[in-house]
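Dear H.,

Thanks for agreeing to be a second pair of eyes. The structure we're designing against is below in token form, covering all 114 positions.
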């Protein structure tokens, strides 16, 4: 794949991701977006109103903003680790491909092949 096609593919993928992120906001204007924890708690209470959790949280953030910050930091660190691992494997693959290619030596000046 040449460089121009790869660039177009990358931009199309970025556009698709942005579109997927914005589409729910535009299509469901009055929807209330909640987390999975709220949905799971409501479903459990519906099935068994007397349910008691087995464990309690080790740490409860002081506010929703701090909770969002911690979630964003966790997501950023995870993305960094995934990016590092993908780059590491790609670099190893490129290095291995470079080492497998036969080295073409230029003709020696005294051999008469020039």
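And this is the sequence the design step returned. I haven't edited it by hand at all.
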């Amino acid at each position: 794949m040449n460089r121009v096609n790869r660039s177009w593919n990358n931009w199309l993928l970025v556009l698709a991701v942005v579109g997927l992120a914005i589409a729910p906001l535009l299509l469901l204007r009055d929807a209330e977006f909640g987390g999975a924890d709220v949905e799971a708690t409501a479903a459990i209470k519906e099935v068994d109103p007397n349910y008691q959790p087995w464990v309690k949280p080790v740490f409860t953030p002081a506010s929703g903003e701090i909770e969002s910050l911690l979630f964003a930091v966790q997501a950023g660190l995870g993305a960094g680790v995934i990016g590092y691992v993908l780059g590491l494997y790609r670099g190893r693959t490129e290095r291995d491909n470079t080492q497998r290619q036969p080295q073409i030596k230029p003709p020696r000046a005294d051999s008469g092949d020039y």
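Two observations from my side: The radius of gyration is 27 Å. The mean pLDDT is 87.

Warmly,
E.
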